[in-house]
Structures are given as structure tokens and as C-alpha cells.
Amino acid sequence: MPKKPIMKSKLGKKPPVSPQLMLSTDYEKSLCNQRQRSMDLNREGLEGLVPRAKLLLTLGGTFFLGFWPLILSTIAFFSALYLYFGSSFIHDGSKTPVSPPQFIDPCALLEDERISGTPSPLN
């Protein structure tokens, strides 16, 4: 198969290649010797625990930072609603007095004839 000539620009250099046209071999490298790398990790012992723990704690501690735009926009949205509608948007029920329900003696309920009697036929 004949090779295609490489196009050169006016300056005599190769034209720039866009990153979309370049093939990455990281995927193939990650699959190469997968079993060996897995066995090495299993055999590692406590030597690799501290770096991995540090990496996991860093990842876990900074995970929520990606959600700051969502958190801030939610706070801004509900603050705007509260400023627009005022206390009618969020109410705590303090304007209506609440009285406790009337106390009914449980013994009086058990002595009721409707409970202790036999049921009457429905027909």
C-alpha cells in the first residue's frame, strides 16, 4: 500500500492536528496487564493504604464542591420567593392559636353499649 505524502504548510512544518483526530491509547494501556496490576494491588499490604486513603478522603471531601452552583441557585430562588411573597410564602402557624383536643376518658369509651353489644344484622 503506497504511503500518502504528508502535507506541509507554507512554513515547511506539519499542519496542526486537532485533538479530535488524534487517537488515544490510554484505553488500551489501561487494559494491558490488568490481571497483574490487580494482583499487585491485592499484594500491596499496608504500604499503599495511606496514599489511597488520602486520595479517597480528598475526593470525598471535595465532591460537594461541584454542586455549589445548584445549591446557590436554589438558595437564591427561594430567597427571591420569600422576598416577593413575604410571610405568606413560609408560615409557621403562629397566627392561629391551637388548642389541645378535648380529653375523653378511655374507660367511658369502653363502657359504651355500642362497643360491648353484639353486632346487629345489616339487613
Overview of the structural elements:
Keywords: Kinase, Membrane, Pyruvate, Transferase, Transmembrane, Transmembrane helix. It comes from Hibiscus syriacus. GO terms for molecular function: kinase activity. This is Pyruvate kinase family protein isoform 1. The chain crosses the membrane at residues 55-85. With 123 residues, the chain is mostly helical. 46% of the residues lie in helices and 0% in strands. It is elongated, with a radius of gyration of 37 Å. It has a domain at 21-89.
Helix content: 40-55%
Taken in chain order, the helices and strands follow as HHHHHH
Number of strands: 0
Instruction: Write down the overall mean pLDDT.
Output: 75
- The quaternary organization reads as single chain
Proportion of residues in extended strands: under 5%
Largest sheet: none
State the shape: elongated
Radius of gyration: 37 Å
Query: What structural class is derived from the secondary structure elements?
Result: mainly alpha
The helix count comes to 6
How widely separated are the two ends?
99 Å
GO molecular function, one term: kinase activity
Protein name: Pyruvate kinase family protein isoform 1
Keywords: Kinase, Membrane, Pyruvate, Transferase, Transmembrane, Transmembrane helix
Organism: Hibiscus syriacus
